[in-house]
Write a structure and sequence with these properties.
Blueprint lengths: L4 H16 L7 E8 L8 H9 L4 E7 L7 E4 L7 E8 L4 E4 L2 E4 L3 H20 L2 E3 L2 E2 H11 L12 H12 L3 E3 L1 H7 L14 H9 L4 E7 L5 E7 L11 E2 L4 H4 L6 E10 H12 L3 E3 L1 H6 L8 E10 H11 L2 E7 L5 E7 L3
Parallel strand pairs: 1-2, 1-4, 9-11, 14-17
Antiparallel strand pairs: 3-4, 4-5, 5-6, 7-8, 10-11, 12-16, 13-15, 16-17
Amino acid sequence: MRPSRPLAGLGLLLLSLAASRPLEAAPRVSFELVTGNGFPLTAQRKWIDLFKNLPGTTVRIRGARGSETTTVEDVGTSRSPSYHVVGILLGDNRLRLLGGEFSANDRTKLAAWVKKLRAEGVEGLTAVRVAFGLTSDQLVAFHAQASRPIPFTTKDVRSGDVARQIVRQVAAPFEVSAAGRAAFGRNELVADELKGLSCGTALAATIRPLGLTWRPRRRDDGKTVLVIEEAGTAEESWPVGWPVKGTPYSTAPKLFENLKVEIRDTPLSEAIEAIQPRVELPFLFDHNSMARHQVDPAASKVDFPAKRASYKRILDTVMFQAGLSTELRLDEADRPFLWISTTKR
């Protein structure tokens, strides 16, 4: 065995080098506050004290010069960014800034405004948030990352291992809550084959049976992270697939092909196994709902009378007999799949 001393020495050297590098300074923010009509001059001191407690900021207060508006100007360089902010102190002793209004007691909210400016620049203050606290451009960019197909097998693989590989495919920083770590520690297996589906849908389907969901979140440093957390506490969650964009027939034409068929007293699981490869669609099951309502496809016997019918009609009929329903959905890359849940919600 090779001695470990050289490696230990290398570790100390790397730590030393890392410690010697100066941390990148946060952009400085200078505030110029304009007193509007009716603003009480006796309130100036409180505003000055408020900004003294915001690191990396300076403030000065002056009277208005005609008609002025809130502005934010990038006055720095790419290597040393800084911002100059003009705000209006209103007659009711509130501060109006670009993208927000604050009272003299809103230190936390004002600090968050400064953080957002430093992390996302001027556009971050005014951009409309469409979902998950992301702007349209940020959501489109993250959706593209979540659209990458997964190239590995998932059925009967531990959920934690599958989730870890999917997150690597997304190539984004990630966070797992304490409840998430505990759920992965149960070493439950993924029941469905998700190979070929996109990362976003596959991850949502993988962790849903564990009582978990995931979502993107924008950090203060401007990076979008992938958060896995308990379903009951999440304000928003990434869905298992999305609505179809065209007609069901144009989305999955084989699902509507006709054939002559008869099914008699057959376990639903056998009928599914016979139909699925013919329609060339992944089948994803809502295992949470099925467990809650005690629906077992292997134990449910189904029938279909002898006649010609489409695969869709056959599936709808036999699924309904077992207390299930089907819904055609798309993953992030617009690949169709069949989502199978219970008729009871």
